[in-house]
Amino acid sequence: MKIFLICSKSFYGKIEYYKTNLEKMGHNVTLPNCYDAPETEAKYRGTDAHSSWKAEMIKHSEEVIKDMDAVLVLNFDKNGQKNYIGGATFLEIYDAFRLGKKIYFINDLPEGMLKDELIGFSPIILNNDLSVFKTDEICVGDKLKHYKGGEYTVLAIAENTETNEKMVVYQANYGDNKVWVRPQTMFFDKINNSTNRFEKINK
Question: Which residues contact 40 (CB under 8 A, 6 or more apart)?
Answer without folding.
Answer: 34
